[in-house]
Amino acid sequence: MFRQIDERMLVSGQIQPGDVQAAADAGVTMIVNNRPDGEQPGQPAGAEIEAAARAAGLDYRHIPVAGGLSPDLVEAMGEALDTADGKVLGFCAAGTRSTYLWALARLKAGDDVEEIIGKAGGAGYDLSALRNYRAS
C-alpha cells in the first residue's frame, strides 16, 4: 500500500481514515495530503484523514496539488519534510503528485537529481523528466 521512496518518505494513492494506524505502525509521524477535497466522488474529506491522523498522534498537512506544482507548494512540502520528526507519508490519487512534490522539494534542498530519480524509480515512479528541471 505505501511505497518507500527513501528512509523518511513514503507515498501512496488515496488513503482512508482506517489506513492511518497502518501508517503510524510503519513509523510515519506526519501525513501530507496532496489531494484537493472533492477531486473525485467518494473521496474522503481531508478533515476525516486529519481527524484520524490527530487521533493516532500524527501531524497532518494539507498541501493540495491541482493544476501544477507551484513554487509555493514546493516550499510548503520542503517545510513539512524539514519539520517532521520521523517518516512522512504523502498521498494523492496515485502517489505521483506526492512523489513529484517530494522530489522538487529535495532538489531545492540541493539533493542530486539522479539520486532523486533513482529513489523514485525504485518505488515505481518515473521522474526522468526532472533531468530538465532547474530549481529556482
CATH-level-2 architecture: Alpha-Beta Complex
Structural class: alpha/beta
Major beta-sheet overview = 5 strands, mixed
Q: Give the spatial strand order of the biggest sheet.
A: 1-2-5-3-4
Could you tell me the CATH topology label: Protein-Tyrosine Phosphatase, Chain A
Can you identify the CATH superfamily? Protein tyrosine phosphatase superfamily
Protein topology:
Blueprint lengths: L2 E2 L4 E4 L7 H6 L2 E6 L12 H10 L3 E4 L8 H13 L3 E5 L4 H13 L4 H10 L14
Parallel strand pairs: 2-5, 3-4, 3-5
Antiparallel strand pairs: 1-2
Helix pairs in contact: 3-4, 4-5
How does this model look, in words?
Helices cover 38% and strands 15% of the residues. With 136 residues, the protein is an alpha/beta fold. The protein has a single domain (3-129), classed as Protein-Tyrosine Phosphatase, Chain A (Alpha-Beta Complex), CATH 3.90.190.10. The longest helix is centred in the middle third of the chain and has 13 residues, at 71-83. The model has no long low-confidence stretch (mean pLDDT 95).
Short account of what is shown:
This protein has about 140 residues and is α/β, with parallel strands linked by helices. Helices cover about 40% and strands about 15% of the residues.
